[in-house]
Amino acid sequence: MKSLMPPEITWRKDKGGFTNPQSEWLRNELRNQVTKIFSGEAEIYRKGLVNKDALLSKYDRYCSQPAEGGNISFRDIFNPLSLEVWLAEYREYVV
Q1: Whole-number percent of the chain with pLDDT over 90
Q2: CA dihedral sign of residues 48, 53, 57, 59
Q3: Are 72 and 58 contacting, i.e. CB atoms less than 8 angstroms apart?
Q4: pTM for the whole thing?
Q5: Which residues make Cβ contacts (< 8 Å) with residue 57, sequence separation at least 6?
Q6: Each residue of 53-62: pLDDT tens digit?
Q7: Which of 8, 14, 43, 68 could form a disulfide with 87 if both were Cys (CB 3.0 to 4.6 A apart)?
Q8: Residue 22 and residue 26: Cα distance in Å, rounded?
């Protein structure tokens, strides 16, 4: 972007990034949907990719840990969730 923006903006040192609220969403706004997906007969369970009881337990612990962080990452929940959504969408192509 340096060719498109003035140098005082391009090289400014006080710029800051931002974080995505996915962790908050998984704990709050999406909790009912995530619980419904994880509690049902998901493809990730049928295919033996994820242990249902272990995932449900981990999700409960994840939702109970402090918002500032804990030992369970949002990725530990998001990865099986996104895999389930993908498998459900492309079920007919997956053996």
Answers
A1: 71
A2: positive
A3: yes
A4: 0.77
A5: none
A6: 999 999 999 9
A7: 43
A8: 6
